[in-house]
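Protocol step 4 of 5: obtain the predicted structure for the target chain.
Materials: sequence only (see below). No template structures provided, no constraints applied. The aim of this step is simply to have a reference model before the mutagenesis design in step 5. Sequence pasted as it appears in the construct record:
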Amino acid sequence: MKTEAAKLSKSQRKKTAQEARKERNGRLVKVILAGCLACLIFLPLGILAGYFSYTWEREDIAQVEQEAVPVPQAKPDNFVPDLGHLVMLLPGQLEGMDLAVMNLECAEGLPGNENLNIPAALDELDAWAEHVREETERNLHRFREHPEESYNSESYWRAAMMITVLQQDYGVHYNLERMRDLSMTHGEDVFITGLLGPLREGTCSSMPVLYVVIGRRLGYPLHLVCANGHYFARWETKDGKVRFNMEATAKGLTCESDDYYKGWPYPLSKDELDSGVYLRSLTSAEELAECLEMRGWVLDALQRMPEAEVCYAEAHALMPNNPVHRGWLILAGGKEDMMARGLLNPNDPNNPFRYKQPPPYVPAPDLTDDQKYVIHDETANQ
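Step 4 output (structure tokens):
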């Protein structure tokens, strides 16, 4: 190569160098153009890929945040969650859930509820609430004319009107037969299905639920409350300015004090009072826990122990500070073990789990009228 280059003249060597330089510059321009074209093609694709990756990551983060901080579950108007869906929700997601839905779902498939049509039952409850609303507005002038007859409390008057309409127009009443036979095999008396049925009968586990369900449809701040072996309803506003208990098994409206329920129908021990379970308004998750316990009672009485244990366990998970749910679960496990060994004969007097009538209700505590019958309404004279 050096020999051939030496043979070229000076002008020829200069021309050859210029051509080589042009060729290198041409290749450089092609490389630059190719790089620019690649940037134009792949840079937008990279930006898009990065954006979607970030979006997906944010969606995952949002989902984790939602699970960590429960929010009320959005419910379309035509959506009725089944029991399996309800027990999968977090406690915060149950807030605002219709108590009627939770109660009816727990009743489905049990004796006395074989033909339960939940959407139809919900429609009937809506119709009852609308009738109560119409009667309340039609008779509101009675309170306006004589408020002193209702402790000057419109809240008290509305609650009394609601119960009066349900009892007089629909025939809702307590099933006195359950005072004699307390067997939990009568599922229709445990849940509100018996009150919606042709006999319109219920018990202390169903009547307060019905009043709460109807009252909430009317916009009333009603809540379910536990006593020892008993349930009642409570009107309680968020600010605490209006608060009174509603004994659901009485004729008309009876408002007993918390002191009354500390001794009736069964006394509450100091440990039970300190547990924070009794004599306070329940949350929606705790209301579902109580409905699950009711379902467990019926399954337990039918000796369907594995199903009963699931109900007690789910109730305990929703309300872990309630020792009753845990107690029922432990007893159900013992019964199932005895059944597996053929030792659980319901007719054997030596069977420790043989059904026995509970002790009779203790007499009502000796309280003054002011202690027993309490209406708290700070807005009564406004």
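Step 4 remarks: The longest strand covers residues 230-236. The two ends are 114 Å apart (CA to CA).
Proceed to step 5.
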